[in-house]
Amino acid sequence: MSMTQNQAVLIYLLASALGGTAPQAEYIRAADIPELVAEAKRQNISALCFSALSAAGLYGTAAEAPAFSGAGGTGDVFGDEAAAKALSKLRERKDKAVRKIMLLDSERAEIFRELDRMKIWYLPLKGIKLKSLYPGIGMREMSDNDILIDPCGRDRVHELMLRRGYTALSKPAEHHDVYLKQPIYNFEIHVGLIGDFLDKRVRRYFDDISDRLTWADSSPDRRCYERKMTCSDEYVYFISHTYGHYISLGTGIRTVCDAYLIDHARGSCLDEETAEILRELGLDRFESLLRRTAVDLFDRPASPDEISARLDTEESALVDSCFLGGVHGSIENGMKNDIQIRGGDMELSLRGKLGYICRRIFPPVSWYHKHFPYLDKHPYMIVLFALRRLTVRAFGSRHRLKKELEVLGRLGDDSDKKR
């Protein structure tokens, strides 16, 4: 699949924003502004996109930014009502992103103070750590805050969140609890880092992560119970978590931005020891793909026509996947990634599709234990659950079965048409 003009312009804008350079007007004029803004929203990168367009002068006036004014002719951004409306929406989303970051930061600080008082150790994760790598506040938009805590304090933290007015959504058996509170608060409190969707080698590596954590507070009295990972573990966790999303429903282009900034700011994390850990966990190939894709896309801004030429076949497939699924992924994207990554079939052939069907009908034992906790105490009953899945619920509901079969056929057709 070749990158569309709008996607290429969006990549160009992201590279400009991450690198702190002003994008050239001629490239922006080639884009469909309303579609560009819509894609930025879908990828959760509206604030980054706004930063680049603002640096280009697009939020001035026609007199201040004549490169975007064509006196009502082709490419006249200021004379295009739809473009002006889209740009206004983009500014609103940027403002909301900044406000949300500030509210989450304030609320998280209050929760951390409570955890310190309760003497429960905690570890900030994911976006909480990554947002500081971005050029400005709010540029790394977040849907929620993720925090790992001492599993022994799970019940007390649950009571704390309820006292603070949160509603708990998760099932007790899951490795994290989700808490929501109006207007925008969303916290995921983890008692484990890795779910059962990843290889057992990765799960085993992070099972004893608490033993490798160190105090974030170096003062002797240690009134702060925040912990931190080693640079190596932090990087391995980022790659593991990203890979987990990639092989399930997929991940968006924002993740590639994260990878670029990590490599740019903390390149020393990938030392020989970390590289060996990634090899042992079977993540080295994906890590290399993600890192080189990030560097090729964002290391220096390139014109939209040049961007696709920089990418090799694997990098193009990764970028296609990011744009196909958006920040939260999609069923179609997840099926495509399953065939290409787990099945090793980049061509989406009939053989690859048959392999996907077999994996859906005969999932691993860990899948049964996750969905049927009853099996933890009665493992011999797995045979009955497997027979039930094989005869009654091979693909879940009839609607899901129909949808997956339609997508399987479409994936092959799309692959042929786009080559």
Q: What is the number of strand segments?
A: 7
The percentage of residues in β strands lies in 5-15%
Described by the principal axes of the CA atoms, the overall outline is globular
As a whole number of angstroms, the C-alpha radius of gyration is 23 Å
What integer is the average pLDDT? 85
Indicate the percent of residues in helices. 55-70%
Name the descriptors.
419 residues; alpha+beta; 5-stranded mixed beta sheet; two-stranded antiparallel sheet; 58% helix; globular; disordered C terminus
Give a structural overview.
The structure is a single chain. This protein is globular. The chain has 419 residues and is α+β, with helices and mostly antiparallel strands. The longest helix is centred in the N-terminal third of the chain and has 38 residues, at 81-118. Helix 1 (5-19) crosses helix 3 and helix 1 (5-19) crosses helix 14 (304-310). Helix content is 58%, strand content 6%. The protein has 21 helices and seven strands. It has a five-stranded mixed sheet with strand order 1-2-5-4-3. Strands 6-7 form a two-stranded antiparallel sheet.
